[in-house]
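ok here's DUF2029 domain-containing protein:
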Amino acid sequence: MLVFLLALSVLASNAYVWLVNYVPLGDVSRYQLMALGHHDQVPAVHRYRVVVPLLARLVAEVLRSLRALFGPNAPSLPLGFSFYLVNTFLLALSGLLIYRTARVSGASAGPALLGMVAVLSSGLVTFVAGSALADSLPILVVALWLYALAARTGGWLLLGIICSLVAKEQLALMLPVVLFYGSFLSWPRRLGAVVLAGGLLLAVHYVVNVYYPLPGGNDQAEVLPVLLSHVQHHLLASLEFLASLDGIISLLLPFGGFNLLFVCGFMGGKAAIRTWSRRLPPGSAAMVGCVCLFMLLSSDISRMLLFAGPVFGVAVALIVEYHPWSCALWRRLAAPLR
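and the structure:
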């Protein structure tokens, strides 16, 4: 509970400052429309990610009911505040899972907390928490997968699989990794969870299409052109962008100065690298590879890199705990205290 409260405190104040100072544009305005029930005004590529907007709408209704208790003069809260509460809560849960995964992987409490803070203190995490966006849920799903693979917890792995496709359809690219490394569960159970995930996504599509049909009448006709556009245009454009100075800055932006600590983890030779890398949860490298594919197929590379946040946080904790350079530094810093 204390770790969760720390995660909340890291997120809440910065995200609130962002909430009250930004102008809703792009994806933000689309998810707000979804929370208001205007799915027919939202492009097909976004309109089926209903979980976070629905939770935000539920929170908004609860807050509206509480406001009624204080009379008509009580101040009203914008819908963005409900998104802020939902996203901050989900991202704090992700932070807790990063901490627990680092502990299960062999890190002590201090480095595990540092790994969690390395992710939650990111300016882009603040952006997601304080905006009307739906990225907090898929980040939580990735963190849940990583914890389940590290702790070999079948129930959490199955829950993550079932929730993955309604959280973000692109997580389907990561499902083969989770299925392969989740070998502590039988194949029928893993494949059954995938079937449930697909069925849940189809049910969401059906309900949204029935109650909020697109003006053109063919809801799937808009999805395929968008997917083809991602492959044809974003892939080459992203590769060209990553080769530029702006692209390099976009890669360094999400985790700031903690990138230096991560880079140090790959110094000192193969033996030094193995001291921490062999303790990473199974499938960590493959998950990062999937995130690289997310970035290439997206117009927002920095935001997609946040999906590698759980792996990054655990890696930072293990580097601080086990890398020879880090161990030597901690001994030197602790010497005056003895």
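+1. Residues 225 and 231 are 10 Å apart (CA to CA).
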